[in-house]
Amino acid sequence: MRSDPDRSSFHRGSFKRVLHVDGYAGFERLTANGDIVLAACRAHTRRKSYEIVDATGSPIAQINPFGLIIDSTSVDALSELRRSICACDNAGGRHSQFGRKKLMAKTLIPGSPLHLRLARFLLGLLNAILLIALVLVLLPLITHYFKHANSYWWIEAVEAFDARMIRWIKSVIPTNFKGHELARWFLVGGILVGRIWVDNLRRKVSIAIYRRAMQRDFEALKSAAPAGADERVLAPVKEKMKAMDARSAKSRAELLKVMAEAKRQLESMGRDLAFLSIDVVDSTKMKLGEDKTFIEHDFHEYKNLVDGKLRSNGSLKAAWTPDGVMACFPTIDAALKAAKEVISSLDAFNARVKMIKSNFNVRCGVNAGHVYYDEQTPMEEMSDRVIDIAGHMQKYALPGTIACAKQIIEPVQQRGGFSDAGKVVDGYEVYQWTSTSHQQDDRAAS
Asked: What's the pTM value of the predicted model, to 2 decimals?
């Protein structure tokens, strides 16, 4: 049925089933009397997750925690896991990535090894065949209570096959016990033992699939966690996975809850932060032919200058390479202000402080986004695409300028001096800021 909220059958009350719809808000009114249940379109929400990954590289959007075997006792835990693990960041907003609406123990798990999935299916089929065989073996015990039962060809065929099986069992093992013929019951017992064995084997295969699915989801959580956070946040999950009894519904539900709690902790570590990358232009060339004492003095003073500007503008943490630095700030404005102050102060530094012949000149790159942040993790151990782009912006910036993405500049309070650089870095249009002194030097050179 086409999803049209104006179809008259809805309003006449004749439609009382599940309606598969997209996210159009108009469909909500159809649920007022409780007769219609809306089922969301998974393709729509999944497409949003792909868009997030393509646009931001967000590791959270890549997590698929729903390849799990669950039962009715795990529904509450799964719901909790869905709410906590499906939140994805995209341009300051949140999108929910929902997988299946219903997960059942017999569902084939995406990502599970094919041979395990095939083995579980075949074992289930064998179990069903043994059940049918059990019914057929017991059928001759009741057919004589029905008149003309042997007139049916299929009953006759079953009894003929049954007679052959009984003769075969008698030829293999003794079946008469104190005048009682037990051949048929030996056959029934063998089938029941076979069903128990097959059922246990199928349960072991299902547990193996479940464990692989949980391990896959754990690795996804671990890859999304910031450096150093996995030992503190994910340690309880590791311990629970080791101690988990996969045969116990209660144990599986507890593991889901522990994973949900770990995901919530990782989510709480996420913050909207800005990153500033600064590097000295041609630093290697500057040192050629210079006295080592002067080099050490000048770069030490330069580092003190930059560190002072970073701290005065609220830098949360920073990591230095020999001649460059990556700093983290709580806001984009703070990162840009620090970069501008560093560039502007270099004129006085070159005139009064430095002792080598070449002047100090820097390139700056700024980027911002939602990243995992842990105060105990050093800046050099933080890893995120947002940070990488800040470094790429700095790499392609001109000397004496600040480069950043166009969308980063739009919400900035003080965005004067920025202009289109005519470049694209990592898929983002680049805007750059140039100091007044460099603008004057450029005009003089032209």
From this structure: 0.48
Residues 285 and 421 placed together within one structural domain of the fold: yes
| Pairing verdict, β 270-280 and 180-181 | unpaired
Range of the domain at 137: 114-205
**DSSP character string of 68-131:** ----GGGHHHHHHHHHHH-EEEETTEEEE----S---TTSPPTTS-HHHHHHHHHHHHHHHHHH
Strands (E) located in 301-361: 317-320, 324-329
Please state whether beta strands 270-280 and 324-329 pair in parallel, antiparallel, or not at all (unpaired): antiparallel
Last residue of a domain, one of 205, 236, 255: 205
Q: What is the distance between the alpha carbons of residues 400 and 340, in angstroms, rounded to a whole number?
A: 9
Last residue of one domain, picked from the residues 155, 190, 205: 205
Which helix (H) or strand (E) covers residue 323, if one does?
none
Model confidence pLDDT, tens digit, residues 115-139: 888 888 999 999 999 999 999 899 8
Structure tokens at 134: 């059990």
Express each pLDDT in 308-322 by its tens digit: 999 999 999 999 988
Which CATH number is 309's domain given? 3.30.70.1230
Lowest-pLDDT choice from 17-26, 42-51, 63-72, 106-115: 63-72
- Residue 24 predicted with pLDDT over 60: no
Question: How many residues in the chain?
Answer: 446
Q: So what's the pLDDT on residue 52?
A: 55
pLDDT of the residue at 98: 31
Cα(149)–Cα(145) distance, integer angstroms: 8
215 is a domain residue: no
Whether residues 283 and 136 fall in one domain: no
Could you tell me if residue 82 is inside a domain?
A: no
Instruction: Look at the chain and report how many structural domains it folds into.
Output: 2
| Burial profile 137-176: b = 16 or more Cβ within 10 angstroms, e = fewer | beebeeeeeeeeeeeeeebeebbeebeebbeebeeeeebe
CB-count exposure of residue 306 (10 Å: 0-12, 13-18, 19+): buried
